[in-house]
Amino acid sequence: MFSYEEALNYLDSFINYEKKSNFSYNARVFNLERMQRILRELGNPHLKLKTIHVAGTKGKGSTAAIITSILNTAGYRVGLYTSPHLVSPRERIKIGPRFITPDEFASCLWETKLVLERLASRGTFTPSFFEIYTSMGFLYFFQKKIDIAVIEVGLGGRLDATNVIHPLVGIITPISLDHTRQLGSDILSIAREKAGIIKPGSRIITSLQDRPVLQLIEKICQERGATLYKIGEDAKFRLIKATPRYQRFEVKSIYRSYPDLFLPLPGEHQLQNAASAILAVELIREDGFKVTKGSIERGLRKVDWPGRIQLISGRPLLILDCAHNGASARFLAKYLQQFYSRKKLILVLAILKNKDVKSIGEALCPLADRVIVTQVKSPRALPPEEIYPKIKVNCRFFPLVEKEVKNALEKAKIMAGKSGVVVATGSVYLVGEILELMNKKTKV
Length: 444
Hints:
The protein contains 15 helices and 17 strands. It is of the alpha/beta class. It has two domains: about 5-300, UDP-N-acetylmuramoyl-L-alanine:D-glutamate ligase; about 310-435, Protein-Tyrosine Phosphatase, Chain A (Alpha-Beta Complex), CATH 3.90.190.20. The strands form three sheets. It has an eight-stranded mixed β-sheet, with helices on both faces. The chain has a six-stranded mixed β-sheet with strand order 12-13-17-14-15-16. The chain has a three-stranded antiparallel β-sheet with strand order 9-10-11, with helices on one face. A hairpin with a 3-residue loop joins strand 10 and strand 11. The two termini are about 20 Å apart.
């Protein structure tokens, strides 16, 4: 047995593609065989769990969090597996509102380590950081006898380590360009990878998609005998009222109508995530999960998903958002234009390598009075000097460069003044660093 710190060090000794920008995404490097071998040695815990699988480019974490909140409110013990984390590695594995404890983390990883050593003794066996983490998550959820697990895909879908499950429902959230080096340079190639979670005979929910993407998903569902449910047809949503901190909206699904729902996640893009979550929990009623209309309404009110247009009160107001591609940056820009167009706005921007810097800059920089470019503590971080030339054409004034996130944030607050707004975005890692700096580490 080892300590939590020793467990983290052991886990970090394996190849972590989250920290790499250049790697081959193919069936030789990424395949489900290693996962299946690990899980077989662990007793196939994933096959003994009821699951919901969430893939997509944008909104998959939010959708998973909303489903979890609803099912928790309905009285079920729900496991939630997401990635990456913002502050604590334990965020990735939760039951209800509680992270896996340090001792539980160390214990599960120790059991997994023994399995890995057995497999290595039979020949070369080199699993990745994410494969080991995912195996741990399945093992932990099985040991804790949860009622259902909500599993977010890590990268893509077809070859992702999570794609060993046979879920009650699969969800594909909006697909856009991201991870183009790994998943393909066009949206249909990316969609084909995401649609790899579609299993024969399964039930699939798709968010609103570009027409070619939707046609591809329809074709794959037809080929695999999967039943497809579409947001916008099988579950329609309409905004009633939006404020900077929450939204009221209605949903009409093929099962029920919800005329006045409350969601504490701002940004109109969250409404279709909520509609997908509602439809998913309605579908699994056929599998014995009794979720009332009241549980759905209360569950939506309780959703907590940090780093997604997260407002931190103060003077100036601080807004944190994990937008890291063009599509998510445009959603954030729409929100900022709606509520803060008359405020002095300072943008703090950090972006990882191989991200679409140009699209992010086009969406956000014109809204800012000043832009400060910084760099997160990640080997994948794009140096500010490389971001600068790609965004300066969209800025009112030349961007400022501040290497340290802490200094960039302090400078932004001074520039915004007490009545202004600081927006920090461009990377999950930037949001995580700022939350850690602000000591917002409850539950860590």
